[in-house]
Every structure is written in structure tokens, then in C-alpha cells.
Amino acid sequence: MARKKPLSNIDAAWLHMDDPTNLMMITGFFEFSEELDYERLKATAEFRMVRRWRRFRQRVRESRLPLRGPYWEDDPYFDIDNHVMRLALPSPGDDATLKEVISTLASRPLDRSKPLWEFHLVENLLGGGSFLVVRLHHAIADGIALMSVLMTLCDVNPDAPWPKPESEKAHRRRGRRVRSLFHPAASFFAATRTMADEGMSMITKPGHLAKRASQARAFTERLLRLALLPPDAKTIFKGPLGRKKVVAWTTDLSLDDVKRIKTAFGVTVNDVLMAVIAGGLRRYLLARGESVPRNLNIRAMVPVNLRPLEEAAKLGNYFGLVVLSLPLGIENPLDRVMEVKRRMDDLKNSPEAVVGYTLLKAMGMTPSEIENLAVQFFAMKSTLVLTNVPGPREKLYFAGSPIERIMFWVPQSGRLGLGVSIFSYAGSVSVGVMTDHGLAPDPESISAYIEEDFAEMLQLTETIAKQAYQPPEEVTPSAQPSSSL
Fold it and tell me: For 256, phi and psi rounded to 5 degrees?
């Protein structure tokens, strides 16, 4: 008999948020400058992922019993060939064709009769190389956990042996070597996991409020703030959704340049990137002939990690959501980044991420009709989902080939039509954009405007640095002190 395990409440919420016009699926790619060995790719997925995490050979089923949620069960027909597939890029095999193929995969739902993940090895690229497109359902885990799992498929050395069965100890040792290349998790986000459990108790156990009066007050204030937010500003990014999604991504932005801006303005790397994205969206609206008044803000739902770094590879969803208002109406890049910093600092010093986690968890406990109302609530309050995942600081190797770039797109939960993802890897930062084709059919324009805004902010940084630098005055001969003999 197949082994069964109920989905957690929050995992069930992500499963039930799936909709034909808005799939709860994380889509991404690994780019290689050389052709990836297909047989080695299959062996890597088999020995390092499928055999290590049972979830990747389990399918999801809805219970026929009343008041019972969905559950995972072993797929009796599991076949790795149904999940790791080859795909020849149609002629001419250029970047436009590649983006079209990835957009098609991002718009196609996963087959629920099988485990909810697929790898597509895209070949026949103009100029050589290959892309590995990955598709994983959000019900399996959040972005941090799935990225950690995918990173355990990688090696830190180019001469790693052919993948084969390994002991649990060897698997953990190799995983630690790869994860050592990641930036350490902020202590704030690691600590708030306990606060999230406290927040859930405040909803499900009213008597708990008296025991945690100060936390309850802060939690309730933030909950009311979310509830009382008016509908988000009406822009071309909001409207009825279709099934076709389209993707694009920026060229690599130098992480050193991002840090140069950060240091000059006295802000964080995250502040810089959020302000640049706001600037890119501003430019796009103006190019489409839209009015962008000084007071225009649009809200982004921003996932915040709540798990400790040592639990990075634990499956399931352990993150909260905060609402960040992006100041699209501010034209000056310096003014914009400082305003983003102010708003980000306010979020960091609040329990809003815990409130978001608690609401998602509670949604998984409610009937589907109530959950749909909650999803519509989030859609009304915001315009996009915006995520930032720090990747490895050094180059990694996948199935024996060096990884040139990694990119992922976050699902637009809440029936939103715009998703923006930031991913850093080996000294560079890439920004991915996914849009609903009916609302914004040209995400490559948005990515180009993000690059333009970044270039302008970098130029402003260099100008400020030159103005701040005062060279020492030259000493003229007449001003030199006379020497005495």
C-alpha cells in the first residue's frame, strides 16, 4: 500500500491557490556554455534528489473524506524519464526562441497524476551550450528550500565523479560544502520562525493573547494595517488574467557595482535593487503612455524567509509575506532609494512577515471558498510579487558542466499578473520578469528599463564620488618655504 502523508496547512494553501491563469509553480533555469550530458543529468537527479527526498517520487491526492485535506502518496508508476526530458529548441535557436519556449513551459501546469516537478534539457541553441529549465510546484517547498535542494545536485569542483549512490553522511557533507558558498541567513529572519508559531496561536487559541500581551499588540496592529489597506493603484499591470505567461531577464549586473551604490548612499544591497526595479517599472509605464504622478506607489508582496540556515534543505513552506510599497512616482534615483530604505527599515522592525506566514497557514485550514476570498483580498491589495534569493558566491558545476547563470521566477500568488525575481550568483545579479501576456506582453522591455535605471544610478554614484573628492592643492614654487644654509 502506498505511503501517505498529509500536506501541512500552508503547503495545502499553496496547492489550492493553483489556478489555470496563475500557476503556483516555480520556474527557473541553469545556463551552460557547453552541452550538458543528458545521461549524467538523469543520474544526478536520480541519486542526489529523488533518492534523498521522498517527496520527489510522491504525487498529491485530494481526500474523499469530509474535513480531510490533501496528502502525499508514493507514485507506484514513478519513472525518472517522465521528469527529466530533452527538448530541441526550434530554429533559429536564438534568444527570442528560447524565451518563447521557457514562457510556454511557465504557462503549462504540472501533471498532478505524477510527482510535481520536471526538468527540461533545452538543446540546439544558436551558438552552442544548453539550458536546464526546472519546474517545481510551490506545494513541495518554498524557494529557499527548493534552491537548497537543487544546489545539492551541484559540485564545487569541475572534476567531480559520476553521480552514484552515496551514504547519508557523504550527502550531507557535500551539501554543506555547497551551502558554505551562500551568504549567511540574517539572524532576524531565522529568529522569527518562533514568532510565527506564536502568531498562529494568537489566532487559534484566544487565551494565548493574555500570555503574550506585547507580541499580541504588535501582531494585531500589523494585521489591522494589512486589512485596512485600500486597493492598490490601478495601472496596466492589474486586470483580468489569461493563461499565457511570458518571461524575460536582465543581463548580469555586477554585484560589486551594486555594493558601490550601496556604500555611496548608505543603504543595503536589497534597498538598491528594490529601488532599481521601481525605476524600471516607472520607465515602462511612461513608455506605454501611462501617467506616473509623483504620489504613484504600487505594492509588492515580498516573501521573507523564516527558516534557520541549517534547515535550508527541509521541504515545506516556511516564509512570511510583507507588503512593500514601491515609489514609482519618484524620478530621482537617490530620492527613490532613500525612500525605499525608509520603507524597508519599517518592515524589518515589524512582525509583518510573521503575520503573512500566519495568514497563509490559516488559509490552508479553511474551505476552498473562503481561501478563494482570501486570495482575492491579496490580489486587491497589491500588484506584483517581488522576491530576492541570494545564491552561491562562487561558480558551481552541474553534471560536470560549469553553470554560467541561474534564474528563477516566483509564482504570482493572489492572482497577480506581474512577478519580479532577483537572484545573485558568482559575483553577478540577474533580475527575472514574468508577466501576464494580456497585461504586459513585452517583459523584455521591463528588464531593459531595469538595466537603464541601474546604469543611471551607478552613474549618479560615480558623479557624487567625484564631487566629494577634493584633490590636494598643488604647492606653487612661490609658496614653498625657503631653505636656510
Answer: -65, -40
DSSP per-residue letters across 126-146: TTS-EEEEEEEETTTB-HHHH
* Long-range contacts, 473-476 (Cβ 8 Å, 24+): none
d(C-alpha 167, C-alpha 170), whole Å? 5
**C-alpha to C-alpha distance for 324 and 343, rounded to whole angstroms:** 7
DSSP 280: H
| Measured distance CA(97)–CA(91) in Å, rounded | 8
Are the beta carbons of 99 and 64 closer than 8 angstroms? no
Segment 17-50, tens digit of pLDDT = 898 999 999 999 999 999 999 999 999 999 999 9
- Residue 22 DSSP class: B
Domain of residue 235, CATH code:
3.30.559.30
What is the pTM for the complete model shown? 0.86
In a 3-state reduction of DSSP, which class is residue 434? strand
Give the pLDDT mean for 392-414: 92
- Tell me, yes or no, whether 263 and 407 share the same domain: yes
Which amino acid is located at 247 in the chain? V
**No. of H helices and E strands in the chain?**
14, 17
* Residue 57 lies inside a defined structural domain of this protein: yes
User: Given the C-alpha cell 510565527, which residue does it identify?
Assistant: 196
